[in-house]
Amino acid sequence: SGAQILAEDTSDNYFVITSATSTAATVNVSADYSVNIGSYTPGTIGALVGAYSVNASKIASVSSHTFRFTAVGGANIIPNSFVIKNSSGVVVAGPVEMGTGGLIKFNDVINYPAGTSTYRIYASIPTSAPNGLFSLKTAPSTDWVGVTTDSGTSVVFSPYLVLMSTATVAQGGLTVSLDTSTPLARQVATGTA
C-alpha cells in the first residue's frame, strides 16, 4: 500500500490521503529447451543457435542485449550475421557480428509484452568453420541495459544466468555409390580385340 498523509482542510476536518505506489516489474528470462538446436554443416545460413523466453509482469523495453559465445574445447567457430526473431519469425534485432571475447551485442530496442513471449537467435556458419560445439548465454541483470517499462517502474530480472542449448558444427559426409543401371564405358586400346 502507499504512504498515508494526514491533511486538514479549512474547516478543520481531517482526512487521509494515500499516495499511489508502483511495484517493480519482474522479468523472468529462461532458455527455451523445447526448440531443437541441432547440427549444422559449415556454410549453413540462418542456423538456429539459441532460444529464450521472457515472462514479464509489465511491458518492458530493452535497448541493448549482450549474449556471450562459448566454443567447447576452444574450437575456432565464429558464426556471423546474428539476428533475433520473435515467435512470428520477424527480425527484432540485428544483424550483428561477434565482437572481441565472443560478445554478441544487439543495440536494437526490443519491446517485451506483458506475459510470456519467445525469441530465437539465428546466425550463419562460415564455410571455414571446423567441427565443434558452441552455445550462447546471457546474464540479463547485467547484459540487458537501457530497460524501461510502460509504467516507469524499475525492473527486476531473474535468474542471473541463462544458458542455452548447445549447437554442433560437423562436416557433411560425402557418399559415393556406383550406378549399376548404366554400363561402364569400355576403353579399348588400338590393336586389341
How is this structure best described in words?
The structure is a single chain. The protein starts with a strand and ends in a 24-residue tail after the last strand. The chain has 1 helix and 16 strands. Strand 7 (80-86) and strand 8 (91-96) form a beta hairpin. The relative contact order is 0.26. Strands 4, 6, 9, 10, 12, 13, 15 and 16 form an 8-stranded mixed sheet that branches. A 6-stranded mixed sheet has the order 8-7-11-5-3-14, with no helix packed on it. It has a two-stranded antiparallel ribbon with strand order 1-2. The longest helix has 4 residues, at 140-143. The protein has 193 residues and is mainly β.
Task: List the defining traits of the structure above.
193 residues, mainly beta, eight-stranded mixed beta sheet, six-stranded mixed beta sheet, 1 helix, 49% strand, disordered N terminus, disordered C terminus
Radius of gyration: 28 Å
Helix content: under 10%
Total number of strands = 16
Q: Mean pLDDT, nearest integer?
A: 83
Anisotropy-based shape: elongated
Major sheet summary line: 8 strands, mixed
Distance between the termini: 106 Å
Total helical segments? 1
Low-confidence stretches: 1-7, 174-193
Q: SS-based structural class? A: mainly beta
Percent of sequence in beta strands:
over 45%
List SSEs in N-to-C order: EEEEEEEEEEEEHEEEE
